[in-house]
Amino acid sequence: MSPDPRPLRLCVLVAALLVAGCATPPAIDPARLPPIPLSFAGAGGKWTATAPAELPAFGEWWKAFGDPVLDGLMAGAMERNDRIHIAASRLEQARALLRAAEGRRLPQVGLAAGAFRGTRPDMGPAAATSLSAGATFSYEVDVFGKIARATDAARLDTDARESLLRSARLLIQAEVAHTYFTLRALDAETAIVQDTVLAYADTLRLTESRFRAGDVAELDVVRVRAEKAAAQSQALAIRRERAELEHTLAVLVGEVASTFSLAPSQWTGSAPAIPAGVPAVVLARRPDVSAAQQALLAAQARVGVAQSAWFPDVQLTASGGFASSGLSDVFKWSARAWGVGALLSLPIFDGRREGTIAAAAAEMDGALSSYREQVLVAFKDVEDQLSSLRLLGEQAQAEAEAVASARRATALSNARYRGGFISQFELLDAQRNELRSRRMETQVRAAQFQTTVRLVRALGGSWDNPAAPAVATRE
């Protein structure tokens, strides 16, 4: 009497379920995540931080600057920048891999045809011909969630690639705005230096006239000529720097530097003010942080995929068709053939699977560290720009006072020099001070624009407070 096989089958099933219960991916340790600060120190405690959440990146933030030329540059960059196209291609690749992973959930159906000539035990000693044609069907039953986990990991990879594409767009937008405002600041500096050259030229004419009259020495003439030449040299250096920035803009907007040009223009307007008290949802909308978060979750899911390699595989198969020794008889009803089957395979020992699980766990550990670093960098970026904006505002006020005083000093010195009350050296010193103060004022203004752009990027594309999901906010 043969033993009852049912207890053995039951033991195999129980063992498989125990393995499945032990294959849960490891949880993310909250102690390794960076703490959320109560507020941003750079804003005097007026801005609060929010916990990580999924929000889309904001769109045309640069229009807050009200510059049509910048709007046109942004449109060109979004359409033709190669770094954005590379990120978009990688996203399409991730989407294709997701479709491949999802395809494992579906039955596999195929057609098959074959011909055989030879001897087989079932065909007698003489050589014979066997022809066949039919269809095959196979389906892997995802009893233990192996395919589901792999699909989830692929979907998270796709989400990460989508966030990286948004990050690439935001980075290019910030680079375009930063480069454009730097170029416009150089235009303003060029105008200041040219005004100074004209002032030196007027002083030179007056000094040369007084030299011919015998009122001043030749040294005074040479000194003014040196100051005028130095100012002209500064103007040429600014033009050289502007040309390089123009070529950089050409690359950012996807054009050839030799054919791209941006006409000089008067720099008007001011940087938009960042309102105080708006929550800095830096973790909620920064695409690079979102990408790191999705990569961490994908790595966690892949640990589960690796652990699932120890689970039994259950395959259902079926086939049906015709087989005959003659071509004319292949598709006759009497030549029909069919079959169904089921296969269960359970690995017992495989060192490769253990190595795969260890590699997946190490990948998850690295992804967790990368996510933590990205969060810390995000808070640092916001703190840097908030502090810079606050200090630049105070510096701009001080520079405005310095420029007003320097202009007044130049006007008084010019009048006193023409009246013969002061030396030419004192006049030149006043003009140099005015030039230095005006250029510094322009540079501080440019820094305010550039820092505002960097803050927008640090906040993920906007400082508006959208309809955020339910996340904990501490004030």
Name of the CATH architecture of the largest domain:
Up-down Bundle
Rg value: 37 Å
Question: What is the arithmetic mean of pLDDT?
Answer: 76
Low-confidence stretches: 5-22, 51-57, 465-475
Strand order of the largest sheet: 1-2-3-4
Query: Proportion of β residues?
Result: 5-15%
Our count of domains comes out at: 2
Q: Please report the total strand number as a whole number.
A: 4
Helix content: 55-70%
Q: How far apart, in Å, are the first and last alpha carbons?
A: 78 Å
Number of helices: 9
According to CATH, what is the topology of the largest domain? Outer membrane efflux proteins (OEP)
Return the string of H and E elements.
HHHEEHHHHEEHH
Overall geometric form: elongated
Helix-strand makeup class: alpha+beta
> What is the C-level CATH assignment of the largest domain?
Mainly Alpha
GO molecular function, one term: efflux transmembrane transporter activity
Protein name: Efflux transporter outer membrane subunit
Pfam families: OEP
Organism: Ramlibacter montanisoli
